[in-house]
Amino acid sequence: MTVITTIEDLRVLAKKRVPRMFYDYADSGSWTESTYRANSDDFQKIKLRQRVAVNMENRSTATQMVGQATKMPVCIAPVGLTGMQSADGEIKAAKAAEKFGIPFTLSTMSICSIEDIAQNTTAPFWFQLYMMRDREAMARMIERCKVAQCSALVLTLDLQVIGQRHKDLKNGLTAPPKPTIANLINLMTKPRWCLGMAGTKRHSFGNLVGHVKAVTNMKSLASWTNEQFDPTLSWADVAWVKKQWGGKLILKGIMDVEDARLAVQSGADAIVVSNHGGRQLDGAPSSIEALPAIVAAVGSQIEVWMDGGIRSGQDVLKAWALGARGTMIGRAMVYGLGAMGEEGVLKALQIIHKELDITMAFCGHTNIQNVDQGILLPGTFPTA
After folding, report:
1. 276 a catalytic residue
2. How much is the mean pLDDT over the chain?
3. Of 38, 60, 136, 271, which is least packed with CB atoms within 10 Å of its CB?
4. Is residue 384 one of the residues assigned to a domain?
5. Which of the following is catalytic: 166, 203, 276, 365?
6. Maximum pairwise Cα distance, the chain
7. Which range marks the domain in which residue 345 is found?
């Protein structure tokens, strides 16, 4: 039996167990994938200062993200098609997050619906909204979030047009997926996955099919979504969402200081420094490189979080030291889910937390609230 000790162990196992088209969907970037690689590579350049002869007892990694208590400054990022990594994947991930004590974010493009998560968990969860041209459909979706008692809305701003994701095109990952001979042969090598999918009715986009006019199946959904991502998205639309929602609003996809200032003016409660996991603008800087300047510009006015490239608790600690008051993990969760379902997601969170806790101790701290840039070796980290 494989001993799982790192997120990389979970990734290797997930690659064996998940059909290629769905594994590649999650574990790839756009165009040359240079930004996708930089997201994780740039964390490795940042070096830590080890301290000794410091009392390391009674450590705490606890904090709050938009007023919600969390065991560590981590929440689960919204990931589309999570329910294709493992049957009922979003439900499994949400349950694992609740057990561990961190927030879970459901994607608009999830397989399990808002109602599925509400029925299977008791902790308040967050919902990620994509801006569509059909404002009536958006208003109804926001209303469903209120009924489900979602505690925050995450509005993603960087998907007005979709990046060039070559692996998806080569794998025939469309809605519905193309049943090519190569894909069918690959599916035959994933019996565990196929058995799981045979045991659930959730195979389409649960937040859209049956909830949006004229979308009754995967085929009609494909034509609807192709027309719906709104390239005209503006700050006026952000104001519209804020008014419709009325609760905690998080803006995801900020990579520029000017946009960060506009986000503050919009009245958002938090922003996420994010390049969409390197899946949109290839050639953009890594999230961790972009973080310090944005923190310097608006960190005293709004909660600044980041995502992209986090594969360990050390990465979380480095992001915190550079001013992020929260992080989002997508791929680390997906690897755990694809490898071992709910148990795998819980394992991923345990791995990240243990690395975060032990690294913090080695850097001479027992409470994450006291951690700052002083734990980093000068000259090894990006500055504002």
Report:
1. yes
2. 95
3. 136
4. no
5. 276
6. 66
7. 7-373
